[in-house]
Amino acid sequence: MYMEEFAPGIMWVGVNDRIxxxxxxxxxxxxxxxYNAYLVRGEKTALVDAVKTPFVDELLANxxxxxxxxxxxxxxxxxxxxxxxxxLAAVHRLAPDAELLVTPRGRSILKELHxxxxxxxxxxxxxxxxxxxxxxxxxxxxxVHWPETMATYEGTERVLFSADAFGGFGALDGxxxxxxxxxxxxxxEILRYFSNIVGMHSRPVLKAIEKLSGxxxxxxxxxxxxxxxxxxxxxxxxxxxWARMEGEPAVTLLYGSMYGNTRTAVEAAAKxxxxxxxxxxxxxxxxxxxxxxxxxxxxxxxxxIACPTYDTGVFPPVDHALSLLERKRLRNxxxxxxxxxGWQGGAVAKLEQRLGNLKxxxxxxxxxxxxxxxxDLEAAHRLGAEVARKVxxx
Length: 394
Ligand code: FEO
Prior knowledge:
The chain is α/β, with parallel strands linked by helices. It contains twelve helices and 23 strands. The structure holds MU-OXO-diiron.
């Protein structure tokens, strides 16, 4: 049971989930995740967002420290994915006088997914709700992350409740704000959240950032992770950079290898990258969860894909990562591909197709039979160097 007032009349009443293994049934949570819910208290009281179903009692206990759930006047559902809205039906039942506010698009989702159809009001884009001493406005930000999503802005304290936008993985370990931590240590988990969950909707993210830029924001309070009160611009800029898919001037080398032949060429290609003064990070696709592969490739502008031919095609762990990156629509990458084959090729040609689907710039390819020869290793080195040069000058 915990709550924290971080602006006058505005409390965090969320939950740290340290139990769930996989977010959305797919994405590992080794450091947990927080479901941030907030109370805004004027003459009337509003609860902004809720938590995942198994944690609703904890949410209610947090709320009850300030107001009994029966005393809630408004439930604001910025986003209806069940990590936030799973507990909404229970709160709604316990707050018989509360009106539940959603976007018009959210109304049918609220009914179909959460079985809530009464005491619901649709709020328009820009609509104002006066709580008496606190004022809320609603700003529709469709597809960040679902079509019904909105952000809620509290005008007296200038707090933006931004739903999934500006959120990250990682539970809050005895802290709430960016002023209490070394933000750099959180960045990878925030990027993993962004790239895994929101990244496919990068255009809507940029539209939302543009739209919300008109608000005078002192604190960004997302649905997951840190509240940004020291430097809210930092998380907005990080999200904008990731959504533009700029990538750092560095190379991610994603590889798979069965018997070490491709791996030998990987070492040469990596040396080629660093020979140009560009850093390279090598990721073993067979031993890395795809969640992290997506994050690593989202991070850097350069990509080298290395794998053997398997069943006439791309080595499956690498293929899986690239198929998910296609779904996530990662763009703006400079790439090279290489790999070994046994008696006939296949992987390199199919990788070319995949990279074509991704619209990545293909710098060069290298396929070789069996063990790489000295010439093959020189070619791998050259390919690494060429990708690095493109990355450095892009
Ligand atoms: Fe945090 Fe899209 O739910």
